[in-house]
């Protein structure tokens, strides 16, 4: 079993640049409040401009008293410095001086998907259907989406990496809503040989964490697939993974969605009301079908990321076009007709059925 390393590797094994603290203090004018971008589980993030190159970057200052700070720091630097993909936030460098640990990333100007989905601002438009699909699946013109980043971690990296903390606040957006996965602090080097899992302390984020992982602490690639399903559900429904403002089972997006998945007539109730009915019926249906498969209780019933990427490629080819697609309203005659047309096709969403993802494409 391979686990993430506990001690810092030789410095020449880093692809990332080593910065001095003075350089990063300069870049952020001593971590000025107005450059503050946000705060995650491991520390505060500031916008900065590197002296010399003028490059704009995001600088994460890891909490000193976190206990796990140093270990997470090493994991993140190691993982990210080996990972190069258009859908992963690029790690530019790091700083380890005294007890200070900082990471320097490419700056993602549009912030996190979480903000766009759940934080309303007067200056910001509601994400339309095509943009939502572009974020998760790609734009079709050579711009891939968040799913491709996960595919890279699972299938292309050697050794493969389980992300472990996939959620909307870890999907950051660049120009043109180009999505990239960030925050590899929890990433776990995957099982090697014929092992199927790595055992870990259960970490990650409530609401996104697969039930099997929460129960057993056995982390598999299918734990990430569950989290991906939750993210896809959030994108389609506009609900939060966990919403403390609601009561009972409605608090959890998965508990809310499960009974609705059993009844096709209820699919329209799942579309984000903020979309105001502007989405392609088939697209909604297929996105929900993919999400439903990902959040199945049984990890071996969940699809692999490569199959999800294929299904999503098909999904993005069906763009919403207001000239072709009528505005949907729950229960309207038109809606039920289009739904019927779709339901006559081969896929079915009953939970626990033996549906294959390939049937969707
Ligand atoms: P994190 O600790 O990575 O979860 O980051 C906390 C918050 O800081 C994120 O939700 C973003 O709003 C912001 N942030 C983190 N990394 C970047 C980045 N590379 N570019 C722009 N904003 C970022």
List the helices and strands and how they pair.
Layout: E1 17-18, H1 21-27, E2 36-40, E3 43-49, E4 56-62, H2 69-82, E5 91-97, E6 100-106, H3 113-118, H4 129-137, H5 146-156, E7 161-162, E8 171-174, E9 178-181, E10 188-189, E11 198-199, H6 211-216, E12 218-219, H7 221-237, H8 253-261, H9 267-270, H10 281-294, H11 305-316, H12 333-343
Parallel strand pairs: 1-5
Antiparallel strand pairs: 2-3, 3-4, 4-6, 5-6, 7-10, 8-9, 11-12
Helix pairs in contact: 4-11, 5-11, 7-10, 10-11
Bound molecules: adenosine monophosphate.
Residues 37-40, 42, 45, 58, 60, 89, 105, 107-108, 111-112, 169-170, 172, 182-183 line the site of adenosine monophosphate.
Main location: membrane
GO molecular function: ATP binding; protein serine/threonine kinase activity
Family: Belongs to the protein kinase superfamily. Ser/Thr protein kinase family.
Overall number of domains: 2
> Can you write the helix and strand succession as a string?
EHEEEHEEHHHEEEEEHEHHHHHH
Bound molecules: adenosine monophosphate
Count of DSSP E strands? Answer: 12
Structural Rg: 21 Å
Give the CATH architecture of the largest domain. Answer: Orthogonal Bundle
Could you tell me the CATH topology label of the largest domain. Answer: Transferase(Phosphotransferase), domain 1
């Amino acid at each position: 079993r391979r686990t993430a390393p506990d001690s810092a590797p030789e410095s020449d094994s880093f692809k990332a640049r080593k910065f001095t603290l003075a350089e990063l203090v300069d870049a952020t004018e001593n971590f000025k409040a107005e450059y503050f971008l946000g705060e995650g589980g491991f520390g505060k993030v500031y916008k900065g401009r590197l002296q010399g190159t003028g490059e704009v970057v995001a600088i994460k200052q890891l909490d000193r008293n976190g206990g796990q700070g140093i270990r997470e720091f090493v994991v993140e630097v190691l993982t990210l410095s080996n990972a190069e993909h258009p859908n992963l936030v690029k790690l530019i460098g790091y700083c380890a001086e005294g007890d200070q640990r900082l990471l320097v990333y490419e700056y993602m100007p549009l912030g996190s998907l979480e903000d766009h989905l759940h934080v309303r601002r007067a200056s910001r438009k509601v994400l339309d259907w095509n943009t939502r699909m572009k974020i998760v699946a790609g734009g079709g013109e050579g711009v891939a989406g968040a799913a491709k980043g996960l595919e890279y971690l699972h299938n292309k990296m050697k050794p493969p990496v389980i992300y472990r903390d996939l959620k909307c606040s870890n999907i950051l957006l660049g120009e043109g809503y180009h999505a990239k996965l960030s925050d590899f602090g929890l990433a776990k080097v995957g099982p090697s040989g014929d092992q199927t899992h790595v055992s870990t302390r259960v970490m990650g984020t409530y609401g996104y964490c697969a039930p099997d992982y929460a129960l057993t602490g056995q982390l598999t690639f299918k734990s990430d697939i569950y989290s991906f399903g939750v993210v896809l559900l959030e994108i389609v429904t506009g609900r939060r993974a966990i919403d403390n403002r609601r009561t009972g089972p409605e608090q959890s997006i998965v508990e809310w969605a499960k009974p609705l998945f059993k009844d096709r007539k209820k699919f329209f109730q799942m579309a984000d009301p903020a979309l105001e009915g502007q989405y392609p019926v088939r697209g909604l249906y297929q996105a929900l079908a993919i999400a439903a498969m990902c959040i199945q209780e049984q990890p071996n019933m969940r699809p692999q990321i490569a199959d999800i990427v294929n299904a999503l490629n098909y999904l993005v080819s069906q763009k919403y076009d207001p000239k072709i697609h009528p505005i949907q309203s729950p229960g309207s005659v038109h809606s039920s007709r289009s739904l019927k047309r779709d339901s006559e096709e081969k896929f079915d969403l009953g939970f626990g059925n033996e549906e294959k993802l390939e049937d969707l494409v």
